[in-house]
Write a structure and sequence with these properties.
InterPro entries: Acyl_CoA_acyltransferase, Bact_Acetyltransf, GNAT_dom. By secondary structure, the chain is α+β, with helices and mostly antiparallel strands. The protein is built from five helices and seven strands; from the N terminus they run βααββαβαβαββ. It has a single domain, classed as Gcn5-related N-acetyltransferase (GNAT) (Aminopeptidase, 3-Layer(aba) Sandwich), CATH 3.40.630. Helix content is 34%, strand content 40%. Strands 1-2-3-4-5-7-6 form a seven-stranded mixed β-sheet, sandwiched between helices. The protein is globular and about 40 Å long. The two termini are 25 Å apart.
Length: 164
């Protein structure tokens, strides 16, 4: 099982060194800034070979309609670099534990409509449809902040109660 912990500046620098594209570099920096502001935790998964996954846990949802209806902490940008090794599940469990430590009653996430594999994983881990469809709007930017691609992905929103 991988070890999960918040990123350090040194971790982010290591990721930046192999990031490749300027859009990826800008994304990593934005995750670090969110964590430094206290708005999120940038969680990294480690195994013996190094970093094998990442996710951000936002203190509150980035979707206004979700905040109005449920106000959960929110998992965002979960990515397991190694599939089938429990990385995603470990990141989710760590995010849930952290959300509980923030005294949040619920945690949620948006999942793209065509990502049935992720939906199955989340449902297996206790997440349930919130009867909300959100549009995940995000941009890929270069190092100068120039928008390279703008995304608007329809997603189902899933929630899990963290109440004891």
């Amino acid at each position: 099982m991988p070890e999960i912990r918040p990123a350090t500046r040194q971790d982010v620098d290591r990721l930046l060194a192999v990031a490749g594209s300027s859009a990826r570099r800008a994304h990593l920096e934005s995750r670090w800034v969110e964590q430094e502001r206290g708005d999120a935790a940038f969680l990294l998964a480690y195994d013996g070979s190094g970093i094998v996954g990442q996710a951000s846990l936002l203190r509150t949802s980035k979707y206004a309609e979700v905040v109005a209806a449920h106000d959960p902490a929110e998992i965002n940008g979960l990515h397991a670099f190694v599939q089938g090794a429990g990385v995603g599940s470990a990141l989710i469990a760590a995010a849930e534990d952290l959300a509980r430590s923030w005294q949040r009653d619920a945690i949620g996430l948006a999942v793209e409509l065509d990502n049935s594999g992720a939906t199955r994983l989340y449902v297996r881990l206790g997440y349930r449809p919130a009867s909300l469809r959100v549009i995940d709007e995000w941009t890929e930017v270069d190092a100068d902040g120039i928008v390279l691609v703008a995304h608007a992905d329809p997603c189902d929103y899933l929630l899990k109660s963290l109440a004891p």
